[in-house]
């Protein structure tokens, strides 16, 4: 089964669709291919209507809402990758995910939040190719008040 078929099946189960690729919010490329690696810029959680999810974990949002926001950020990453590559089937594996979590000082569930993206990638690309190295870091603020910003590195085939 192809990567895109896996993704569509997963999204249908969740009642979601792959959103359109988000436009850059500044002077940068959403995806940069260097050799056999594709690097994404940080992606924010835009929902299916293109609306930015906002809030801080441990203040306005709980870990479950953060998980969902990270899932949306992951979907936006996949949308950017599809726009750049033409097909997600060119992705061989997830190499690394960096998740930044906008949170209160006492919030310590950053890994649980970033799992929203990690679990999505694992289901789409499979348990081996969909799981790479990962960092989940708490920060004091993120652009536009977003709860998460996630970037990824993929190996291409």
Topology:
Layout: H1 3-14, E1 31-34, E2 37-40, H2 63-85, E3 91-102, H3 110-125, E4 133-139, E5 148-156
Parallel strand pairs: 3-4
Antiparallel strand pairs: 1-2, 2-5, 3-5
Helix pairs in contact: 1-3, 2-3
Give a verbal description of the structure.
This protein has 157 residues and is of the alpha+beta class. It has one domain: 2-Layer Sandwich (60s Ribosomal Protein L30, Chain: A), CATH 3.30.1330.40. It has 3 helices and 5 strands. The chain has helices at residues 3-14, 63-85, 110-125; strands spanning 31-34, 37-40, 91-102, 133-139, 148-156. The chain has a 5-stranded mixed sheet, covered by helices on one side. The protein starts with a helix and ends with a strand. The model has no long low-confidence stretch (mean pLDDT 94).
Name its key features.
157 residues; alpha+beta; 60s Ribosomal Protein L30, Chain: A; five-stranded mixed β-sheet; 3 helices; globular
Concise account of the structure shown:
By secondary structure, the chain is α+β, with helices and mostly antiparallel strands.
- Global shape: globular
What would the CATH topology be?
A: 60s Ribosomal Protein L30, Chain: A
Second CATH tier, the architecture: 2-Layer Sandwich
Order of helices and strands: HEEHEHEE
- Mean of the pLDDT scores? 94
Label the structural class.
alpha+beta
Helix content: 25-40%
How many extended strands? 5
Largest sheet, spatial ordering of strands: 1-2-5-3-4
- Name the assembly state: single chain
Report the radius of gyration as a whole number of Å: 14 Å
Please mark out the parts with pLDDT under 50 across 5 or more consecutive residues, or reply none: none
Tally of helical runs: 3
Sheet with most strands: 5 strands, mixed
CATH class: Alpha Beta
Strand content: 15-25%
| Measured distance between first and last alpha carbons | 16 Å
């Amino acid at each position: 089964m192809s990567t895109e078929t896996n993704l569509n099946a997963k999204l249908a189960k969740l009642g979601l669709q792959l959103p359109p690729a988000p436009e850059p919010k500044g002077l940068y490329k959403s995806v940069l291919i260097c050799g056999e690696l594709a690097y994404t810029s940080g992606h924010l959680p835009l929902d299916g209507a293109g609306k930015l999810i906002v809030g801080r974990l441990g203040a306005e949002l709980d870990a479950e809402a953060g998980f969902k926001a990270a899932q949306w950020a992951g979907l936006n990453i996949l949308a950017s990758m599809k726009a750049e590559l033409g097909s997600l089937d060119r992705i061989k594996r997830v190499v690394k995910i960096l998740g930044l979590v906008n949170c209160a000082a006492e919030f310590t569930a950053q890994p649980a939040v970033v799992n929203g993206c990690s679990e999505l990638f694992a289901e789409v690309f499979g348990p081996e190719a969909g799981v790479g190295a990962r960092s989940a870091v708490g920060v004091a603020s993120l652009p536009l008040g977003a709860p998460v910003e996630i970037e990824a590195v993929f190996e291409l085939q």
